[in-house]
Design a protein that fits this description.
Length: 426
């Protein structure tokens, strides 16, 4: 009663939740960006730095947060077999959702004829593609050659591997590693507190990131490629509305609407920041608020932010068909199957930072013989597409965390039930 009265006495802006402020910043950023289309340089020079500072702070906390979260996630399971159980479910679900994602992208790109009406020659385009790593190189690069370099370079796959090795090491040493275990748990808590403090700046960061994007990519630039963006948006909505809600409904056995409501802050920030790793702290916090155990969030979500790139896979499938249609190239069924397999492998090596999907797109195009110059077609609106695919990426991470947590809890409940008769007999 008194608490309600105290809240009522607060100014209206203090009674609004952080989620509400993020949405307000999102809408305000769109409107201000449209009004500043003639002064995009001003927006990039004086408004974007606020968003960049916020994103830098998130990236700064991500490396220690992921490292200590993975270590704590492993040691909290107490049993290597339990790590294998959760890890196995997680990887299988991530691979399945990625396959669904790229198939959905290809389906809508073909059915909706995403490249219809566009005719450009290679001479009109200029794009210098970065060299893409081979599959073997990707596997080799997962394992770090020293401890510090992955931390400095923020190579998240290597950071995760370091966390796994140290987590297992602490687990197997046992009581002798109690001091190290307590230190890692304390550091994980410290990182979470630092992250929570940074999140209070989220509305300012969202506004600062969004205004220059809208100002630079107004209707004049977006118009010719609006259909590509529309098809991408439709495919993303289907991935979230069918695949993820299906996982929540039938595997997690929870309400899809409650999941989407709880995931809303994650989706809105991902859309504005276009960074899976930057959104990771918010995703972990929202997952725990929705009842996911800390041991699952600390293991599943950091892994997902690195290897689960469903939105990027949708993007690769749609852009491949778009570029093929623009250049008048017919993609056979075999070529599209190749795109599915290549996108699946490429998603594992895609870093969770803005713009990384462009390098993977070059890899996908090369696998089916499409001209790399076609990347210049989507480069102008890649930021918009990046915002869409990042939103799907992080939502998929959250959905898989819900499913893995629910499956583990059901398994533990069955074990407890099976143990009851034995206990009663004794």
């Amino acid at each position: 009663m008194s608490k309600t009265g105290t809240d009522a006495q607060k100014p209206w802006f203090k009674r609004l939740s952080l989620t509400t402020w993020i949405f307000i910043a999102l809408v305000a950023g769109v409107f201000v960006g449209f009004f500043m289309q003639g002064t995009a340089d001003f927006a990039a020079t004086y408004i974007k730095p606020f968003g960049t500072i916020f994103l830098n702070l998130l990236k700064f906390i991500c490396v220690p947060l992921v490292l200590f979260s993975i270590i704590c996630g492993v040691i909290s399971l107490d049993d290597a077999r339990k790590v294998g159980s959760i890890g196995g479910k997680t990887i299988v679900l991530y691979l399945l959702t990625t396959v669904f994602a790229v198939c959905i992208g290809l389906l809508f790109a073909n059915v909706l004829n995403v490249g219809a009406g566009y005719t450009l020659s290679a001479e009109e385009l200029a794009y210098e593609a970065a060299e893409s790593p081979s599959f073997i190189d990707t596997i080799v690069n997962i394992f770090p050659s020293n401890f510090l370099d992955p931390m400095v370079q923020a190579t998240m796959l290597q950071v995760i591997v370091i966390g796994l090795f140290f987590g297992f090491g602490i687990m197997f040493v046992g009581e002798k590693a109690t001091i190290v275990k307590d230190f890692c748990i304390a550091m994980a808590e410290v990182c979470m507190k630092v992250m929570q403090g940074i999140l209070y700046l989220a509305p300012i960061g969202v506004f600062g990131l969004l205004v220059p994007v809208v100002a630079a990519n107004g209707p004049d630039i977006l118009g010719p490629l609006m259909w590509l963006i529309a098809v991408m948006a439709i495919a993303c909505v289907v991935q979230v509305g069918l695949v993820y809600t299906g996982l929540i409904k039938f595997l997690a056995r929870k309400s899809p609407l409650k999941f989407l409501k709880g995931e809303a802050p994650v989706m809105s920030f991902a859309f504005a920041s276009a960074s899976s790793m930057g959104t990771l702290p918010i995703n972990m916090e929202c997952a725990e608020k929705m009842g996911v155990s800390k041991e699952v969030t600390s293991f599943v979500l950091p892994l997902g932010a690195t290897i689960n790139m469903d939105g990027t896979s949708i993007y690769q499938g749609i852009c491949a068909v778009f570029i093929a249609q623009v250049f008048g190239i017919d993609l056979s069924i075999g070529a599209q199957v190749t795109i599915v397999l290549t996108a699946l492998l490429a998603s594992i090596g895609t870093a969770g930072v803005p713009g990384s999907g462009m390098i993977m797109l070059a890899l996908v195009l090369g696998s089916v013989g499409l001209p790399l110059e076609g990347i210049a077609l989507v480069a102008g609106v890649d930021r918009i597409l990046d915002m869409l695919r990042t939103t799907v990426n992080v939502t998929g991470d959250g959905a898989v965390a819900q499913v893995v947590d629910a499956m583990e809890k059901r398994k533990m409940a069955k074990r407890a039930q099976a143990a009851e008769p034995a206990g009663a007999v004794e």
